[in-house]
């Protein structure tokens, strides 16, 4: 059996997962991947493998069709996000596939709340200025009693909410899949009603056809002036052009983005110029502990699909 691994966090810990796969007696190929391979590269590569552990690659119908013509028998999407994977194509082609849900809620929430605090107190800006030889005394805002619009109340959202409530913040959760919330300190809203009262927007939801660019120029125009925005979910939830315009006008104070519409972030993006914005590299789930655990889960699920007994 030959296994293809294209998930960057997993590839960054080869020393942890390769011995596991060696015990199963399978051959593993790890391409040099920074973020994703292209669809064209995958169409050429995937047919040569029995199993595929997918990262954020464009796992399209065309890729799976090429895999089906070749050796591909099963796949696992490493992590929780599945918007880049054509699950319907896998179903049509009879290729078993799954993701690894509920693996990174705490880790991503930690990064998101860290970003929120940093936006409130402008700590990243202060750090950069000190490195230049300056000594800034920026006056931030307190967190207590501030209102957060939390978009998504799944594993990440719930973990974020518990941390925000512990900070004394008021949380308005938006999630069309949730009919009621009993957790203390959390109110349930209907997007985008109530954004005009929010001091922060905090995105933790999955991406689908219905919520693409859910934060657009119209919604940004309804927000409180000076709102701060955190996104640790998926880049296309936000219309980046509209966000850049709002940052330029000052209607949005700042944004902390671990994800973008185009990744890596283009060099000509205005987001690179704004002094108070914070940028990540789609890396909020990446801790040694969580990646190791998810590697084991992904490998176990793939072995099950391939009919190889668990060790």
TrEMBL record:
Residues 14-306 form the D-isomer specific 2-hydroxyacid dehydrogenase catalytic domain. One of its GO terms (molecular function) is glyoxylate reductase (NADPH) activity. InterPro entries: D-isomer_2-hydroxyacid_DH, D-isomer_2_OHA_DH_cat_dom, D-isomer_DH_CS, D-isomer_DH_NAD-bd, NAD(P)-bd_dom_sf. GO terms for cellular component: cytosol. PROSITE patterns: D_2_HYDROXYACID_DH_3. The keyword Phosphoprotein does not apply. Belongs to the D-isomer specific 2-hydroxyacid dehydrogenase family. This is Phosphoglycerate dehydrogenase. It comes from Gallaecimonas xiamenensis 3-C-1.
